[in-house]
Every structure is written in structure tokens, then in C-alpha cells.
Amino acid sequence: MVQGPVTVTVTGAAGQIGYALLFRIASGHLLGPDVPVKLRLLEITPALKAAEGTAMELADCAFPLLQSVDISDDPRVAFDGANVALLVGARPRTKGMERGDLLEANGGIFKPQGEAINAVAADDVKVLVVGNPANTNALIAQAHAPDVPAERFTAMTRLDHNRAISQLASKLEVPVTAIKKLTIWGNHSATQYPDLFHTEVNGKIAAEQVDEAWLKDTFIPTVAKRGAAIIEARGASSAASAANAAIDHVFTWVNGTAEGDWTSAAIPSDGSYGVPEGLISSFPVTAKDGKFSIVQGLEIDAFSRERIDASVAELGEERDAVRGLGLI
Ligand code: NAD
Ligand code: LMR
Predict the structure, then answer these.
(1) Which long-range contacts (CB under 8 A, 24 or more apart) does 229-234 make?
(2) I need a labelling partner for 251 at 20 to 30 A (CA). Which of 7, 36, 51, 125 fits?
């Protein structure tokens, strides 16, 4: 049970995900319906005015749980006392741009933010990186926060997880609640691997309820490329669904997973499933007492092994690239 008030810092607060996220945090969806919240918003200087506009709207909602809203363009101010840090602010991918191109553009943002979290956040800070490339940005922030336990730095693959559940539910014509134990492995990118071989639908393995061609040629690419499809359709990257997934990620982290189920989150690898230690990779995870744990003992067949390895190899390349840029 979380005691309030909880200080939540949101970076990129004036952006489109920020706009979809802040009102749900303030209304109690991030932590629970009884937990008071103090919001701290970080923006770059030119966007401070827009952030102030959002703060005016937050005030106009008269949310019972919202105790305060503070805005700053200084990470050392914005992360002061943060119990939860949502690192959303980054440059979104635009049409035709590969995520790898974002490494250099965004890497520089996460170093000073990691340093500030190290210096001024609360001892129990939990960090979720949403800004892309999320896994590697989380690695950069973590590298600059040596006093914060490494496992507190996580990256978001819950949106991919939710997308996969939705696609499978639609295919099998079942409610989303019938689906348990779905896993996204690897990177939040087109190489991610949504795994149906341990997923249960009404208690039966999902991969056995769909044909192999659909799984391979429709399901996996649809989930993995959904972000690009949204960009193509909206002319902007996903926002409300991304904010919703960020809420889900933190809510689960704080309040735990249900008995008999798990979720997906990118967390620092302990070497499980052959993922090199330290890479922030998506795994099947349970949460209890404010801690994620990797689900152990799953059998990985050759089909899954190949796809997990490919996504993990990409994470290794991204890590090497930011290392080469002196960012970690
Ligand atoms: P946006 O451009 O609407 O907003 C980004 C905001 O971040 C802007 O207001 C900008 O001023 C701010 N910002 C930039 N640099 C900053 C810094 N150093 N400190 C604080 N704020 C800063 O973008 P968006 O649509 O809200 O998306 C944000 C990020 O989330 C993008 O990187 C996008 O690719 C990513 N994203 C991730 C997922 C996921 O599943 N992990 C899903 C969707 C989007
Ligand atoms: C998404 O999955 O919707 C985003 O990460 C897309 C992107 O690359 O910005």
C-alpha cells in the first residue's frame, strides 16, 4: 500500500504524451485512487509557457488528489524529491526517420537528467523512460546515476504489450481480459519479439490457437511496426496510448502483478535468457513490493531464440554506439 503524497516528475510535460499523461496522474490512475500526488514538470525553456498552460488546466480540474504543480527548465529543480520519474521528453521520430538516428539527438538529454536524479531524487525513486530510443536512453540515464540502484531504471514496452494483447484478442474474438502471460522481448523497436508461446488465452497456449503463418507474417510485424503505422496514419507518434501504457507500467510496478499473470517491461538484465547483463531489455516480469522480477524457467524454442537474439543484438549495438559517443 503506497503512502502519499508521492512526488512525480514528468519530463517533456508540454508535449503530446505529457498532455495525455498529466491528467491521469493527477486523477489517481498512476498510483491508486487514494494516493495524493505532487507534480513536478520539466521542460526546455521555450516550452515553459505551454507547460504553464497545462498547469492552469490541471488547476481547473480541481483534482482532489493533486497537491501541487511545479514547473522548471532545470533538471536539478524538477527531479528534487522525485519518487517517480517519467522521462518522456525527447525528440519524437518523424516520418521516414529510423530510431537509430535518434541516438545522438536524444542521448545528450538523458545524461544530465541521470545526473540530476542521482543528486536530488528521493531514495526510493523509480524511473520509467518513454522517450525514444527508450531502452538505450534508460541505459544512459542509469550510467549517470551511480548512487541509485540500477534496477530502478526501466524503459517502456508496455505499449507493445498492450498492442499485442489487443491484436490477439481481436484475432481470437475474445475479450482482452482472457489473455494472460504475454511477453515482449528485447528492444522497443521493430526488432522486438512479441511471444505467444507462453501466452494463455482462456488457459490454453495462444500459439496453438493461431496458425503459424498469421503468427509469423501478420501478428509479429503488426505489433513490432505499430508505432510506425500510427506515425504514418496520424502524422505524429502515438500519444494517448503511450501515456496509458506509462500509467500501466508504473501502476503495476508499485501495486504488483495479479496472481497467475505477468507483464512486459524493459529492465536491466541479470543475464537471464542469455541477455547480456546490464542491457535494459524487455522481459516477462512480475512485480511485488515495488520490485520487478524476471519470470524464470520459460522454455525458449529455436523460433523464439532467433528473434530474441536479434533484438538483443540491436540493443548491444545501440549500447556500443552511445559508448562510442561518450554518453555512457
Ligand atoms: P512531443 O514532441 O510532443 O513532446 C516532447 C516534449 O519534450 C516537447 O514538449 C519538448 O519540448 C520536450 N523536451 C525536449 N527535450 C527536453 C528536455 N531535455 N527536457 C525536458 N523536456 C524536453 O513528443 P511526444 O509525442 O510527447 O513523444 C515523446 C517521446 O516519447 C518521443 O521520444 C517518442 O518517440 C516517445 N514515444 C515512446 C513510446 C514507447 O512506447 N516507448 C511510445 C510513443 C512515443
Ligand atoms: C511507438 O511505439 O508508438 C513509438 O515508439 C513510435 C516512435 O518511434 O516514436
Answers:
(1) 231/93, 231/94, 231/95, 232/95
(2) 51
Does the pLDDT value for residue 206 go beyond 80? yes
Could you tell me the distance, in angstroms and rounded to a whole number, from the CA of residue 129 to the centre of ligand 2? Answer: 13
Which atom of ligand 2 has the smallest separation from the CA of 231? 6
Say whether both 165 and 306 belong to one domain: yes
Q: By three-state DSSP, how is residue 210 classified?
A: coil
Residue range of the domain that includes 63:
6-155
CA-proximal residue: ligand 2, atom 6 (nearest): 227
Say yes or no: 291 and 186 in one domain.
yes
Q: How far is the CA of 299 from the centre of ligand 2 (A)?
A: 30
The yes-or-no answer on residue 188 being catalytic is yes
Q: Is residue 131 assigned to a domain?
A: yes
**Pick from 105, 139, 155: which residue ends a domain?**
155
pLDDT digits (tens, 9 = 90+) for 248-305: 999 999 999 999 999 999 999 999 999 999 999 999 999 999 999 999 999 999 999 9
- ipTM computed for the complex: 0.99
Average pLDDT rounded to a whole number, residues 97-114: 80
Asked whether residue 328 is domain-assigned, the answer is no
Number of domains making up the chain: 2
Whether residue 172 sits in one domain with residue 143: no
Tell me the C-alpha to C-alpha distance, in Å, between residue 95 and each of 208, 230, 327.
36, 10, 26
- CATH number for the domain that contains residue 58: 3.40.50.720
**Residue 68 is which amino acid?**
S
Atom of ligand 2 nearest to the CA of 238: 3
From the candidates 29, 161, 188, 249, give the one annotated as an active-site residue. Answer: 188
